[in-house]
Design brief:
mainly alpha; 10 helices; Arc Repressor Mutant, subunit A; disordered N terminus; disordered C terminus; single chain; 3 domains; DNA-binding; nucleus; transcription regulation; 235 residues
DNA sequence: AAATCTTGCAACCGCCAACGA
DNA sequence: ATCGTTGGCGGTTGCAAGATT
């Protein structure tokens, strides 16, 4: 049996978006807002899959997108958040205003991964790379560095510390991570009513057992001013 | 100058969870 | 409780541009 396709593939365009298509999508969303991606293409006069429209809007056309190079601060934040959350790109993107999950994912795979490897840090577990692997990486990076004139990474004799401070660093990070609940829309009055009925924050810090120094989480005694929030760290 | 290789990014694909009928 | 639909997410691919040979 299988799933029905998300759209009629035979009559949809694929590949890069043209300026005309972009303009149609922008105009439509400006006039009608986001939502119901399935019916949007037809309504907007686009021969595209709804998913494709959503992706184009989220990753490229949405206003307030910060384009251009990542700053050093953003680099650091991504690395630390990745150490904590793993490949949860959408959550990471939520902490970087103007950046999309796709952009961060690409940036991670093309830049940060390499950067961490060159520092002897395993980009998957954020700990030190196994010595043999590190030597291999060192060799590869040295070759690359020589050809690009980049300073070689410093692999000390004692690699026990290596990049393992990364975990510790995570604890110093002010991860006042909160996941905002979806924007309230009058159409969603039912779900909003449910939220109102359950007005309390869900502390992921407690839920996932992230505790600092064995102290009780402040969620237990704080009077959270914004109850519609998922808390991910004790603040 | 041409051919080949590498890199970076936009877009696609498939899976999954939430939701409503 | 079940099933179909939809939106969202993460992994992967394809292609254009730049770098190298």
């Amino acid at each position: 049996m299988g799933r029905s396709p998300c759209c009629e593939k035979a009559h949809t365009n694929k590949g890069a978006w043209s300026k005309e298509e972009d303009q149609k999508l922008i105009s439509y969303i400006k006039a009608h807002g986001e939502g119901c991606w399935r019916s949007l293409p037809k309504a907007a006069g686009l021969l595209r899959c709804g998913k494709s429209c959503r992706l184009r809007w989220i990753n490229y056309l949405r206003p307030n997108l910060k384009r251009g190079n990542f700053t050093e601060e953003e680099d650091e934040l991504i690395i630390r958040l990745h150490g904590l959350l793993g490949n949860k790109w959408s959550l990471i993107a939520g902490r970087l205003p103007g950046r999309t999950d796709n952009e961060i994912k690409n940036y991670w795979n093309t830049h940060i991964k390499r950067k961490l490897l060159s520092q002897g840090v395993d980009p998957y577990n954020h700990g030190p790379i196994h010595h043999a692997m590190a030597l291999e990486t060192h060799r590869a990076v040295a070759i690359q560095s020589q050809s690009k004139g980049i300073a070689e990474p410093n692999f000390g004799e004692d690699n026990s510390d290596g990049g393992c401070s990364e975990r510790g660093d995570n604890l110093e990070l002010d991860l006042n991570l909160s996941i905002s609940l979806p924007h309230y829309s009058p159409k969603c009055s039912d779900s909003h009513a449910n939220l109102e009925a359950n007005k309390r924050s869900i502390c992921l810090c407690c839920h996932l057992s992230f505790r600092q120094s064995g102290q009780p989480c402040s969620c237990l005694n704080s009077d959270d001013s914004n109850p519609l929030v998922l808390r991910l760290w004790d603040s």
